[in-house]
Design goal:
This protein is α+β, with helices and mostly antiparallel strands. The protein contains seven helices and four strands, in the order βαβββαααααα. The chain has two domains: 19-23 and 117-224, no CATH class; 34-108, no CATH class. Helix 5 runs antiparallel to helix 6 (193-203). The radius of gyration is 18 Å and the shape is globular. The relative contact order is 0.19.
Length: 231
Amino acid sequence: MYTLTPPIDHRSPPPDPEFCLTRAYGSRTPKQKGGTLVAEGVVELQDHERWLRIDGYRPARCERCGSPVHAHEHRSRLLLGEGEGTTDIAIYRCADRESCGAVWRVLPGLLARHLWRAWSTVERAVADRADDAECVAPGLASDTGPPIPERTRARWRGRLVTSAALVVAVLSTAMDVREIAVVVKRAGYAATRGEVVALFAESSAPPLASGHVLGALAGVVHRLAPGVRLM
């Protein structure tokens, strides 16, 4: 049985994150008509395209009522900095339209929710660089590839220096997973999001491939508290 004993931290508390990062979905009430599911294991674009072709994203059942689901549509999704700049996502609807009718969007683990890019692109944009005085999340992918607008980079990096208290609280619900327990115990509630990302990268076994750290952690957070965002 793990217990959370946050380390003593004499620093000033980090700023609170933007509200958009902390909005969890409501419970599965009659007003909650579906949401976004993340296929965490799909981390490469070519695998995502293949899953779309074979209908590999179809959920086994409706997450709200347990009924079968029907393929509803594919919807175009921006994917800036990658190939043609767009991809599709699969959308499913509950077969019980009269009593439920929930609609489920399924994102591959490679896509960053609401950021319109792949997580690998976001990761290299926020990675510490040799000319950076501030290191927000050490151990991430090196910054190579198509240029990222500086305002976008600054916004993403700014989110990583905000409070991770909610993220740590979410992760603490999965203390039976060794890697997550290590992150929670070492981070405590005074950590920043970047510090939690660094701890997650350090404790993951086997080690996560370059470019896959942010996406993996974001997927875990969304699975444990649907709607809550890492960035």
